Amino acid sequence: MAIRRAAEPNRGGLALPGGFVHVDEDLETAARRELREETGLEVDYLEQVGTYGAPDRDPRARTFAVLYLAVLPNLPDGSTGTDADAIWLPVDELLAADLPFDHHEMLTDAIERARSKLEYSPIAASFCRPVFTIGDLRRVYEIVWGKQLNPANFQRKVQSVEGFVRETGDVVSEGRGRPAKTYTLGDVTTLHPPLRR
């Protein structure tokens, strides 16, 4: 998600949502408030990615930024908060945009954190329906990792992680070939061994 900046620098240009911390807020509370004000979104999951404080990162004043990654599997069609015009863009398009401050570096770091998170957590399954095929899960990994994965190797890796997925006993037809087994998310919180890119 990006916003159109209403003020200089880069007025009218794209930027990551954000703002200033109020004196009575901790960092996560401020991140949630800014996300809600600028995009209208409430999130369950936020993870701190990094802190940015180059002396010249903001031409207006000396500022520091703390970057959070929000994970939202079921995104609304579009949302605008009270502070800014929020828009959904493919990440490649946003990376190609002329972003202000150090937002390109921040976005790159957030993408890398999301890609890494798929290696050691079961979060990818939250982007599937409650009952899914290994092919459905593989497509999530392929989209986030930005590359095609060998279906047989991926299935072997997923099934080698005890508790990651559970067979339902049902099958579905995916159009060609034999019907695919269906699964639900297991009870693990950490993937061991991790799934490597």
Description:
With 197 residues, the protein is α+β, with helices and mostly antiparallel strands. The protein folds into 2 domains: 2-112, Nucleoside Triphosphate Pyrophosphohydrolase (Alpha-Beta Complex), CATH 3.90.79.10; 121-185, Orthogonal Bundle (Arc Repressor Mutant, subunit A). 30% of the residues lie in helices and 19% in strands. It has helices at 27-39, 91-96, 103-120, 134-145, 151-160, and strands at residues 2-4, 14-15, 45-52, 65-71, 85-87, 165-172, 180-185. The protein has a 3-stranded antiparallel β-sheet with strand order 2-1-5, with no helix packed on it. A two-stranded antiparallel ribbon has the order 3-4. The model has no long low-confidence stretch (mean pLDDT 91).
What's the topology here?
Layout: E1 2-4, E2 14-15, H1 27-39, E3 45-52, E4 65-71, E5 85-87, H2 91-96, H3 103-120, H4 134-145, H5 151-160, E6 165-172, E7 180-185
Radius of gyration (CA) equals: 19 Å
Determine the mean pLDDT: 91
The CATH homologous superfamily of the largest domain is named Nucleoside Triphosphate Pyrophosphohydrolase
**How many beta-strand segments?**
7
Please write the CATH class name of the largest domain: Alpha Beta
How many domains make up the coordinates? Answer: 2
Number of helices: 5
Could you name the ranges where pLDDT drops below 50 across 5 or more consecutive residues? Answer: none
Series of secondary-structure elements, N-terminal to C-terminal: EEHEEEHHHHEE
Biggest beta-sheet profile: 3 strands, antiparallel
- In terms of DSSP E residues, the strand content is 15-25%
